[in-house]
Design brief:
Shape: elongated
Number of strands: 9
Order of helices and strands: EEEEEEEHEE
Largest sheet: 4 strands, antiparallel
Strand order of the largest sheet: 1-2-3-7
Radius of gyration: 21 Å
Number of helices: 1
Helix content: under 10%
């Protein structure tokens, strides 16, 4: 699969997100304590922008009055209808087997590695004559 450079790591600090367009697709990239995850920026329910949603966690209770709040900042809540999705897997909390936000593979790569290739650029000979730049094609 082709790779697309989104941003320098410093542009997406821990606990934040960045919405981008890649080949016409809206994607949101999350940084969870130094780990990066990417989901479609469209909620599968009605298409709401997940990038505008609230980050929350998982609230569990074994009995009335006893609760445990975990996974702080790892759940994204759609701003339109409050559907919640696990940022790590894209699975919804309402029906994890059938409803999920599309997930994309993310990696962090050194800039030098990205510059080296495997890219090939088309080049053209250039000459300067008087005050004009001429490109030979």
């Amino acid at each position: 699969m082709p790779k697309h450079i989104i941003a320098p790591v410093a542009d997406i600090p821990p606990g934040s997100r960045k919405a981008v367009q890649v080949n016409g697709r809206a994607i949101v990239v999350f940084n969870l304590a130094g780990e990066f995850f990417a989901l479609s920026d469209r909620c599968p329910h009605k298409g709401g922008p997940l990038s505008k949603g609230r980050l929350t966690g998982l609230l569990q209770s074994s009995q009335p009055g006893d609760y445990c709040y975990t996974r702080r900042g790892e759940i994204i809540r759609c701003p339109w209808h409050s559907w919640e999705f696990d940022i790590r897997t894209g699975k919804s909390w309402c029906d994890p087997e059938r409803v999920r936000a599309r997930r994309y593979a993310v990696s962090v790569e050194p800039g030098a590695q990205l510059i080296e290739g495997p890219y090939t650029a088309e080049t053209f000979a250039v000459t300067v004559e008087d005050a004009y730049v001429v490109v030979e094609m």
